[in-house]
Design a protein that fits this description.
Elements (H helix, E strand, L loop, with lengths): L1 H47 L10 E4 L5 H12 L3 E6 L5 H8 L6 E4 L5 H13 L6 E6 L14 H29 L2 E5 L12 H21 L5 E7 L14 H5 L4 H6 L2 H15 L7 H12 L6 E4 L2 H9 L5 H9 L2 H9 L6
Parallel strand pairs: 1-2, 1-4, 2-3, 4-5, 5-6, 6-7
């Protein structure tokens, strides 16, 4: 009797061990299968995605071609055979006229203020009338402006203005042209900035506009994936010298707009110091647009464009890769270590000399 009981217990334990072993094997196989499925899906997608070696028959719409990235990209795509629809704020201006002279007849200069629905609709009409054989392959949302000021020095209209161009302008343009890009299973590219995730003094309004832009682009990427449309975000670092995006203004320009209460808080010498610091920092950046243009070309023509292109120096890129994962208490503390932040703190409420 006792032997039967021990045999039963032994069989039960053996069964439990076999069950545990089986479960362990299943658990071990699951991640391997997941990895294999992921790699298989990537191979299938790579096979299905279009790689545009030459631009002949493809159309690309670029906003903000008066200068900077948009101007250079338009020239480059024109040389590769694309039909380029170059949106310019000032179609009769120096930048647009220069672009027209240096390009082929396939490039079309179009008046485009991204804050105006009527401009966007007129551009869409022109694109439809001149649509190349393979359709509108890409929309590059490049138009944008920058500005610098602490939040308390700004007015609501300052925020509204920069958001209307940098964020709402991209939304207007993207929505208007999505049906054409979807038909071509093409690309939508957004020019953002490191300030979409990196916080610093004097860049509040710009950061708000670019962070909103990336939220819109991320949502669009998920929705467009079902249609075979790729969405990429370009994140340039310090390219102030390479473009005309910098707004030149002195500390005195801001100081004169403050009311008496604000002037009691902030020191006029600090405004001058902040202006010098901002301009000197921008002068340390990249002097040409090559890195950004190459990333844009990859986003437009590669069969597997990246979701994000972080474009900065090697040292800065390493830091910016880590930055989003750092605890807020640490990233905030980093600013207190900078000499500029310390000078600001010492100058607050100080009497003007």
């Amino acid at each position: 009797m006792r032997k039967q009981i021990w045999d039963t217990v032994a069989h039960r334990r053996l069964a439990e061990m076999n069950t545990t072993l089986f479960i362990g094997q299943v658990i071990g196989i699951v991640p391997i299968c997941a990895v294999l499925l992921f790699l298989l899906s990537k191979m299938v997608l790579r096979h299905r995605c279009i790689h545009v070696q030459g631009g002949y028959g493809y159309g690309v719409l670029i906003t903000g071609c008066d200068s900077g990235f948009g101007h250079q990209l338009a020239r480059c795509l024109d040389q590769k055979g694309f039909v380029v629809f170059a949106g310019c704020l000032y179609p009769d201006g120096i930048g647009a006229m220069s672009l027209s002279r240096q390009s082929s007849s396939h490039l079309k200069i179009l008046k485009l203020d991204v804050t105006k629905d009527e401009d966007i609709q007129q551009v869409k009409k022109t694109v439809l009338e001149n649509l190349p054989q393979k359709g509108l392959w890409a929309v590059v949302n490049n138009a944008g402006i920058t500005d610098w000021a602490e939040i308390e020095w700004s007015h609501f209209e300052d925020f509204r203005h920069i958001i209307d161009i940098n964020l709402c302008g991209c939304i207007r343009t993207s929505i208007a042209f999505l049906p054409l890009v979807r038909a071509a299973k093409g690309r939508v590219v957004f020019v953002s900035s490191i300030f979409a995730f990196f916080n610093c003094l004097n860049m509040g309004a710009y950061s708000v506009s670019k962070r909103g832009l990336e939220a819109f682009a991320d949502c669009l990427r998920l929705e467009m994936a079902s249609f075979g449309v790729k969405v990429s975000i370009i994140q340039p670092g310090n390219f102030g010298q390479a473009t005309n995006i910098l707004r030149i203004k002195s500390g005195l320009d801001i100081w004169e707009k403050l009311d008496n209460e604000q002037k009691q808080i902030f020191n006029q010498q600090y405004f001058e110091l902040a202006s010098e610091y901002f301009m000197s920092t921008c002068k340390k950046g990249f002097k040409d647009t090559t890195l950004v243009i190459d990333a844009m070309l990859h986003a437009i023509t590669s069969s597997q464009p990246k979701y994000r292109y972080l474009l900065a120096s090697v040292m800065d890129r390493f830091f910016f890769k880590l930055y989003p994962f750092m605890p807020t208490v640490l990233t905030d503390a980093m600013f207190s270590l900078s000499s500029m932040y310390a000078k600001r703190r010492d100058m607050l409420y100080a009497k003007n000399i």
